[in-house]
Design a protein that fits this description.
Shape: globular
Number of strands: 10
Oligomer: single chain
Strand content: over 45%
Structural class: mainly beta
Number of helices: 0
Distance between the termini: 40 Å
Largest sheet: 6 strands, mixed
Helix content: under 10%
Length: about 130
């Protein structure tokens, strides 16, 4: 069974950067789009990015577009979310989640029905 573990969160100053990692175990990711979500206190869960199973197509919510970059290292079953120019509004728990698919070149950032959920990693943007 595929399991994903997020890491790389922590405390960062406004304007700084973090790189989140999503590591797979149990199965490979060749037929899984990977989605990133975040949830801040008092707010609903927000889908912020997805990357297709092939890695050829990444999509972003407006809140992440231009600042975040989603990428894959297929050989090592890893997915990364590079986050630049962070602000306090980015403070949240961040989760990566798989969505199995045979359509390997596309993903929909609006999708919310994932195959599984991990514990997440906390990103805290403050001075």
């Amino acid at each position: 069974q595929l399991q994903l573990v997020e890491s790389g969160g922590g405390l960062v100053q406004p304007g700084g950067s973090l790189r989140l990692s999503c590591a797979a175990s149990g199965e490979g990711l060749d037929y899984d789009a990977i989605h990133w979500f975040r949830q801040a206190p008092g707010k609903e869960r927000e889908g912020i990015s997805c990357i297709s199973a092939s890695g050829s197509n990444a999509n972003y919510a407006d809140s992440a577009k231009g600042r975040f970059t989603n990428s894959r290292d297929s050989a090592n079953n890893m997915v990364y979310l590079q986050m630049n120019n962070l602000g306090p509004e980015d403070t949240a728990f961040y989760h990566c989640a798989p969505k199995s698919t045979f359509v390997r070149t596309m993903c929909d950032v609006r999708s919310r029905s994932m195959d599984s959920w991990g514990k997440g990693t906390l990103v805290n943007v403050s001075s």
